[in-house]
């Protein structure tokens, strides 16, 4: 796989913005509607199942999307599915910035924030090392480690948009989505109970849960299931991890730009201005705006809901487009890096709780 990737034109797919081949059909509202309609129906089903039975909507949407994988053979759906998995994904990433402010990050304090940054860095490195252990390439380990370290499915989607589908196939990307969402759901169930058995106080439990559970909703829900104070701490810690999504994306983008384009000739080099995709800039600007101005509660609520829906749409579209046969052919060892990074995240968070 690594040898094959070196032969690919690395810069052209850096953000999935450029096409290596001519599009098969012009994107108009009429061509987008069939695919978007299918994604919307699946999203409504996922939200209904989540509301009535409790599992994360992201997980339900992912599983239903995989079950409908056969629909991707209908070319009439292609434009809408591509739009949902690319454009709507990027808009959703921008809107995540409405959930956090720089003030929330500073309220965490220097020592816990430094510990949190170290945990995230170690988890991402662990993902890359674990990928070698399970005979996967480094990019897959980076995606698995980044999704675990930052914010689960949202981070996986954002990182994949940076890494590119030519480096990580749709089916392997779906493995990361499925693994992180299932691990996050399990963590929300067991981590608060473990914190109780260890007799952690509210602050310690909140830090442990917020620093180790992948998905934002599960981390916050797990914290409040322990206590209201633990929920508040878990919220700040988890949102601090989300805030680090933007700088991590920039670092990954610049690293891929530096090392990925070295063999493509001088004409393929991309400057810093071209190296920063618009959705990263939008994310940072929205965080800054939310920090500088008290946005109306209704706008914040609407923005958060829109971000969740758009990311759900992107997950569903990615699942429908996945090569399910290829996904199954990878075997259970493909989930190894996710399992290792999940365990490492919990162990390091627990150690940090004892030291803080």
3D architecture notes:
This protein has 356 residues and is an all-alpha fold. It has one domain. The chain has 18 helices and no strands. The chain has helices spanning 2-6, 29-53, 57-67, 78-96, 102-106, 110-133, 138-149, 153-163, 170-197, 202-212, 216-226, 228-243, 245-260, 272-275, 278-292, 297-321, 324-329, 336-355. α10 packs parallel to α12 (228-243), α10 (202-212) packs antiparallel against α18 and α11 (216-226) packs antiparallel against α12 (228-243). The protein is globular, with a radius of gyration of 20 Å. The model is unreliable at 1-24 and 261-275 (pLDDT under 50). The chain crosses the membrane at residues 29-47, 53-71, 108-130, 142-163, 175-198, 239-256, 276-297, 309-328, 334-353. Belongs to the UPF0324 family.
Protein traits:
356 residues; single chain; 74% helix; mainly alpha
């Amino acid at each position: 796989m690594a040898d094959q990737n070196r032969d690919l034109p690395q810069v052209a797919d850096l953000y999935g913005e450029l096409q290596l081949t001519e599009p098969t059909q012009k994107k108009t509202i009429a061509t987008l509607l069939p695919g978007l309609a299918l994604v919307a129906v699946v999203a409504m089903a996922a939200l209904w199942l989540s509301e009535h039975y409790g599992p994360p909507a992201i997980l339900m949407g992912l599983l239903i999307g995989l079950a409908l994988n056969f629909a991707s053979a209908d070319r009439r759906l292609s434009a809408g599915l591509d739009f949902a998995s690319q454009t709507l994904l990027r808009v959703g990433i921008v809107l995540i910035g409405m959930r956090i402010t720089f003030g929330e990050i500073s309220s965490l304090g220097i020592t816990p924030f430094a510990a949190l940054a170290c945990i995230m860095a170690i988890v991402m490195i662990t993902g890359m090392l674990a990928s070698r252990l399970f005979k996967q390439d480094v990019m897959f380990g980076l995606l698995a480690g980044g999704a675990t370290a930052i914010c689960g499915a949202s981070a996986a989607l954002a990182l994949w948009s940076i890494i590119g589908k030519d480096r990580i196939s749709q089916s392997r990307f779906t493995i990361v989505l499925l693994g992180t969402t299932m691990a996050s759901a399990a963590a929300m169930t067991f981590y608060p109970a473990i914190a109780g058995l260890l007799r952690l106080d509210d602050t310690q439990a909140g830090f442990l849960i917020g620093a180790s559970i992948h998905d934002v909703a599960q981390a916050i829900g797990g914290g409040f299931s322990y206590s209201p104070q633990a929920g508040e701490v878990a919220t700040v810690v988890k949102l601090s991890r989300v805030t680090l999504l933007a700088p991590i994306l920039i670092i990954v983008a610049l690293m891929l730009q530096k090392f990925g384009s070295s063999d493509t000739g001088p004409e393929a080099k991309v400057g810093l201005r071209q190296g920063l995709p618009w959705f990263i800039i939008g994310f940072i600007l929205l965080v800054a705006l939310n920090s500088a101005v008290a946005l109306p509660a209704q706008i914040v609520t609407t923005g958060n809901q829109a971000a969740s829906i758009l990311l759900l749409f992107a997950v569903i579209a990615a699942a429908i487009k996945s090569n399910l046969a290829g996904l199954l052919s990878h075997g259970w060892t493909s989930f190894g890096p996710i399992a290792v990074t999940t365990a490492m995240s919990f162990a390091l968070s627990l150690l940090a709780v004892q030291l803080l």
